[in-house]
Design a protein that fits this description.
The complex is a heterodimer of chains A (627) and B (167).
Chain A: H1 6-18, E1 22-27, H2 30-34, H3 37-50, E2 55-56, E3 66-71, E4 83-86, E5 90-92, H4 100-109, E6 119-120, E7 126-127, H5 134-137, H6 155-160, H7 165-173, H8 176-186, H9 198-206, E8 214-219, H10 228-235, H11 237-251, E9 255-260, H12 265-280, E10 296-301, H13 311-318, E11 342-346, H14 347-359, H15 361-364, E12 375-382, E13 388-393, H16 398-405, E14 423-426, E15 432-434, H17 445-450, E16 459-463, H18 469-483, H19 489-506, H20 514-528, H21 532-536, H22 539-547, H23 549-558, E17 572-574, H24 584-588, E18 594-595, E19 603-604, H25 614-618, E20 624-626
Parallel strand pairs in A: 1-3, 2-3, 8-9, 8-11, 9-10, 12-16
Antiparallel strand pairs in A: 1-4, 4-5, 6-7, 12-13, 14-15, 14-16, 17-20, 18-19
Chain B: H1 2-5, H2 7-20, H3 28-39, H4 44-54, H5 58-67, E1 79-84, H6 87-91, H7 94-105, E2 119-124, E3 136-138, E4 141-143, H8 148-166
Parallel strand pairs in B: 1-2
Antiparallel strand pairs in B: 1-3, 3-4
The chains are: A alpha/beta (627), B alpha+beta (167).
Chain lengths: 627, 167
C-alpha cells in the first residue's frame, strides 16, 4: 500500500477550506443533542437552501458557501446547544431552532454579532470572543484540544490539524526505547485512576520476549458521573488510535483492542468509522506508514460490569469469561491477554500521548506539579452553574475549578452562592470528598491521596449545603455493592453489610454501635479485598465520616437529618391556618396524596406521599411545611 | 411454545452468529450480545445450544450471562425507560423520578416489567448528559431536566398512544 503523505494531505485540506466563507461548528455532544442540536443542524441546511446557499458537510467533496461540522462535546453542556462561527470565533449559546435564520442573515451574510445569543458575563454583558469566557479561558485544553472543534468522523480534519504526525514520526524514526523514554520524561501517569507512570508501564512490556504483544485501550468508563473518556472517543477517536500506534511501537505490539462500554453506542460507531479510515490510509494494517511494522486495532464491546475497568478483570472479559480480577503479579505486562505481554492504558492517557510527542515531552512536563505532570480532564457536575467537561493542569485549586470555571455553587432554590459548597466528591465511588478547607489546595495525585481522596478517573461532583452526606455515602455504596464481582468474601459481604448499616442510619434504626461497626468494617474491606474496587469501596464512607461525623451522629443519636433530605425524619404537612383551599397542591401532586375541598384546609396522606416536595413548591401561601 | 413450532429457523440464526465468530469460545460475550440483539433476551435453550456448539459447559455460559448487567434472561417490555442514577442526576433528585414511575406502573425493586408487557424500568449509571440532570431515556430518546410531573406526563402520553393504536 502507498505511504500516506501527511504534509500534502494538510496542504490540500487547507486549500479546500479556503473556498468556504465560514465554518459553522455545532456541538453534537449528548447534552446539546438532547437539547435539540439535531434540529438546529437540519434548520441550517433547510434555511440555507431556501436562500440559495449551501453548506458542505463532508470536506471538499463539493463546492459550497459554508462548511458545517457536527463536533464532539465542547464541554459547556449547561449552555447548549452551542453554535460557533469561524473565522470570527463567535460562540452562540442556548441556540434554538428559531434563531437559525437570524444567525444566517446577520452573522453569516451580514458579518455582525447577535448580542442576545452571546454568553452573558457577570455584568450581563455579551461576550463575543469565546476565549474571554471564564469557562474556557481558565482551562488548558490539551488532550481535549481538538475535541469539540473537528468533525470526529473525518480523518482529513484530524490530519489537517497535525494528526498522525506524532505516530508517523515514532514509527519511522524513533526506537522503542526512545518512545518509552519520551513518556518518562513527560511525566505522564495513568489517567484512569491508578496514576502509574505510563513510560514505566510501556518499558516493562517492551523488555518482555514474545512474538505477540497486545495494546489494549481501556474505554470501560464506569464511574457514575464521569464521561471524559466517552467525550474523547466520540469527539476525537483518531487521537486514541494514534496513541495506541505509538504504544505499539514502544512495546513491539502486534495487535490492539479497544474495550468500550456498550452503553456508549455513539463512541463505538465513531471508533469503527475512524478505524476504517485509518486502514484506508495505511495508518493501520500491514506495513503502516510505509514501514515494516504491522498493527491493527479491533473493538470489543463491554457488557456492563464496572469491575471490568480493572486490568485483570478486563482481560478475563476479553477472553470470554466472567470479569473477575486476578492477583497481581504476574502483571499484564508479563502475562496478559491470552497469556501474552499486554499493555493496558486508559483512553485519556492514550489521547495525551500524540500531543506529548508533538509538543515535546519537556514542554508537557512544564504543566502541572512536581509529581503530577500535564493536564487532567474532569467531568464537572452537580450543584454548579456550569456543568460540563473541563481540562485543567494538575495543581489547579478547587476555587479555580468550582468558582472560575464552574461559575459558582447553586443552592436548591437556584441561587448562586459562590464558593459555598458543602463538599466536592472526587474520584467517584472509589474516591472521597473535599470540603471548604481544601478550597485553595493544589489538586494532584499526591495531595489528594494524602487527604484520603484520589484523582480517580475524573468525576467531580459539587454538592451544595442542602445535600445529605450519609445519603451520598449510601449512593456510592449501593453502586459498589451492586458491582462487586463476588470473588472476595470481604468485598462481597462487606459492601452489603456497609450498605445495610447506612440504611439503618438513614431510616432512623441505627444504634450507638452502628458508627463504630461501620468504621471497623470499612477498614476490613479496605485491607482484605483483592482488587481496586474492594480496596477503594469504603473510601466514600471513611471520607464522609472524617469530615462530616457530626452529620452521621445527628442521624443516629438525634434522629435528625440536618440537610432535611432523609425521608424517615420528615414529612410534609399543610398548616391549616395558612391554607386557602386553592387546591393547587393537590393538582400538582403526582401520586394524588392530597385531598380537600373548598373552604376546608387540605390534608396530605402520609402513606401515599412520596416526599417529592412538588406541593411545597406549588403553594403560594407557604402553607406546606416540612416537619 | 413458539420455540417448538419453529425450531429450525431459530437455531439457524444462532448458527449464523456462531459461524461469524468461528465458534471461538473466547468470543462468548460478543456471541451472546448478537443473540440478545436478535431475541431481545437470552432464551435458556439457546444458551444451552451455544454451550454445546462452543464445547464449554452450560454453567460457564450461564455464569457469563448472569455476570454482566447488559444481559437479560427475561423478555423486556415494549418501551424501555432508563432513569439515569449517575452522581449528578442523583444529586439532582433522580430518585423522585424512580419513585413516581414505580408508583404509576406498579413496579418495584424486584419487578421491572409491567404485567401488560408495555414498560420495563431500568436504572443506569451516568448517561453523560449531566448538564441536563436529572435525565431519563425512553426508547433511546433522552429527556433532560425532568421533574416528577413531566415524567408522569411522558408516561401518560405513551399509554395514550398505545391505547389509540389498539383501537
Amino acid at each position: 500500500m502507498n505511504k500516506i503523505d501527511l504534509a500534502n494531505h494538510q496542504k490540500q485540506f487547507r486549500e479546500v477550506m479556503e473556498q468556504y466563507n465560514a465554518r459553522i461548528v455545532i456541538c453534537g455532544g449528548t447534552g446539546c443533542m438532547a437539547n435539540g442540536a439535531g434540529e438546529i443542524i437540519e434548520a441550517f441546511h433547510r434555511i440555507l437552501e431556501e436562500k440559495g446557499l449551501k453548506a458542505a458537510v463532508a470536506i471538499a467533496k463539493e463546492p459550497a458557501d459554508y462548511y458545517m461540522v457536527k463536533s464532539g462535546c465542547q464541554g459547556f453542556c449547561q449552555m447548549g446547544p452551542l453554535v460557533t462561527i469561524y473565522p470570527q470565533e463567535v460562540l452562540y449559546v442556548k441556540v434554538k431552532e428559531c434563531d437559525v435564520e437570524e444567525i444566517i442573515d446577520k452573522t453569516l451574510i451580514g458579518g455582525e454579532v447577535i448580542d442576545r445569543l452571546l454568553y452573558r458575563d457577570e455584568e450581563d454583558k455579551g461576550v463575543s470572543d469565546m476565549h474571554q469566557i471564564p469557562f474556557y479561558s481558565k482551562q488548558k485544553r490539551t488532550a481535549l484540544k481538538l475535541c469539540g472543534f473537528i468533525d470526529a468522523e473525518d480523518i482529513d480534519e484530524y490530519i489537517a490539524n497535525g494528526g498522525y504526525t506524532s505516530s508517523e514520526n515514532a514509527v519511522l524514526s524513533m526506537t522503542p526505547e526512545e518512545v518509552c523514554q519520551s513518556m518518562l520524561e513527560s511525566g505522564l501517569r495513568g489517567r484512569g485512576g491508578g496514576g502509574f507512570p505510563t513510560g514505566k508501564k510501556w518499558d516493562l512490556t517492551r523488555i518482555q520476549n514474545s512474538d505477540i504483544k497486545y495494546v489494549i485501550c481501556n474505554g470501560d468508563e464506569g464511574d457514575p458521573g464521569a464521561f471524559m473518556d466517552r467525550c474523547i472517543m466520540e469527539g476525537n477517536p483518531h487521537s486514541v488510535i494514534e496513541g495506541m500506534i505509538i504504544a505499539a511501537k514502544a512495546i513491539g505490539g502486534t495487535e490492539g483492542y479497544i474495550y468500550v462500554r456498550t452503553e456508549y453506542p455513539l463512541a463505538v460507531e465513531r471508533l469503527k468509522t475512524a478505524l476504517k479510515h485509518a486502514r484506508e490510509n495505511n495508518i493501520l494494517g500491514k506495513g503502516i506508514f510505509g514501514s515494516s511494522m504491522d498493527f491493527d486495532i479491533h473493538i470489543m464491546e463491554g457488557a456492563g460490569a464496572f469491575v471490568c475497568g480493572e486490568e485483570t478483570a478486563l482481560i478475563a472479559s476479553m477472553e470470554g469469561r466472567r470479569g473477575m480480577p486476578k492477583p497481581k503479579p504476574p502483571f499484564p505486562a508479563q502475562n496478559g491477554l491470552f497469556g501474552k505481554p499486554t499493555v493496558i492504558n486508559n483512553v485519556e492517557t492514550l489521547a495525551s500521548v500524540p500531543v506529548i510527542l508533538s509538543m515535546g515531552p519537556g514542554k508537557y512536563a512544564t504543566m502541572g506539579t512536581a509529581g503530577s505532570k500535564g493536564t487532567k480532564t474532569f467531568a464537572l457536575t452537580g450543584n454548579v452553574a456550569h456543568t460540563g467537561l473541563i481540562e485543567v493542569p494538575f495543581g489547579s485549586t478547587l476555587r479555580e475549578i468550582v468558582v472560575d470555571i464552574g461559575g459558582g455553587v447553586i443552592d436548591n432554590d437556584g441561587n448562586n452562592v459562590g464558593p459555598d459548597f458543602k463538599a466536592v466528591q472526587i474520584g467517584g465511588p472509589s474516591g472521597g470528598c473535599l470540603t471548604q478547607e481544601h478550597l485553595d489546595m493544589p489538586l494532584d495525585y499526591e495531595t489528594l491521596t494524602a487527604i484520603g481522596a484520589m484523582v480517580g478517573s475524573g468525576g467531580l461532583v459539587v454538592m451544595n449545603q442542602q445535600t445529605c452526606m450519609v445519603q451520598i455515602a449510601r449512593f456510592f455504596m449501593q453502586f459498589t455493592q451492586n458491582e462487586s464481582c463476588g470473588k472476595c468474601v470481604v468485598c462481597r459481604e462487606g459492601t452489603r453489610q456497609m450498605l445495610n448499616l447506612l440504611d439503618d442510619i438513614i431510616q432512623g434504626e441505627a444504634t450507638e454501635d452502628t458508627l463504630a461497626l461501620l468504621e471497623e468494617l470499612a477498614h476490613t474491606v479496605k485491607i482484605g479485598s483483592l482488587c481496586g474496587l474492594g480496596k477503594t469501596a469504603p473510601n466514600p464512607i471513611l471520607s464522609t465520616l472524617r469530615y462530616f461525623r457530626k452529620e452521621y451522629e445527628d442521624h443516629v443519636l438525634r434522629h435528625h437529618c440536618p440537610a432535611g433530605v432523609c425521608k424517615a425524619f420528615l414529612s410534609y404537612k399543610v398548616v391549616s391556618s395558612l391554607c386557602k383551599s386553592c387546591g393547587l397542591c393537590a393538582k400538582k401532586c403526582p401520586v394524588n396524596a392530597i385531598s380537600g375541598e373548598k373552604g376546608v384546609p387540605y390534608v396530605i396522606d402520609g402513606e401515599r406521599c412520596i416526599q417529592c416536595g412538588a406541593c411545597m413548591d406549588a403553594c403560594k401561601f407557604h402553607a406546606v411545611v416540612l416537619g | 411454545m413458539a420455540m417448538n413450532e419453529q425450531p429450525i429457523r431459530s437455531f439457524d440464526m444462532v448458527c449464523e452468529i456462531l459461524d461469524r465468530y468461528h465458534k471461538d469460545s473466547t468470543k462468548l460475550i460478543p456471541i451472546l450480545q448478537d443473540i440478545q440483539d436478535q431475541y431481545s433476551y437470552l432464551p435458556e435453550d439457546i444458551m444451552t445450544f451455544v454451550s454445546t456448539a462452543l464445547g464449554i459447559s452450560s454453567s460457564t455460559v450461564y455464569g457469563v450471562a448472569t455476570f454482566y448487567a447488559h444481559f437479560t434472561l427475561a423478555p423486556k417490555g415494549k418501551h424501555i425507560i432508563k432513569v439515569c442514577d449517575g452522581t449528578a442526576c442523583h444529586v439532582k433528585k433522580s430518585d423522585l423520578l424512580l419513585d413516581v414511575i414505580e408508583k404509576e406502573l406498579a413496579l418495584d425493586k424486584n419487578k421491572k416489567t409491567t404485567d401488560d408487557g408495555l414498560f420495563t424500568l431500568e436504572t443506569v449509571a451516568c448517561l453523560g448528559a449531566c448538564g441536563l440532570a436529572p435525565v431519563l431515556v425512553i426508547d433511546d430518546k433522552v429527556h433532560g431536566l425532568m421533574t416528577p410531573e413531566t415524567t408522569l406526563a411522558l408516561i401518560h402520553q405513551i399509554k395514550e398512544a398505545e391505547k389509540n393504536e389498539q383501537n
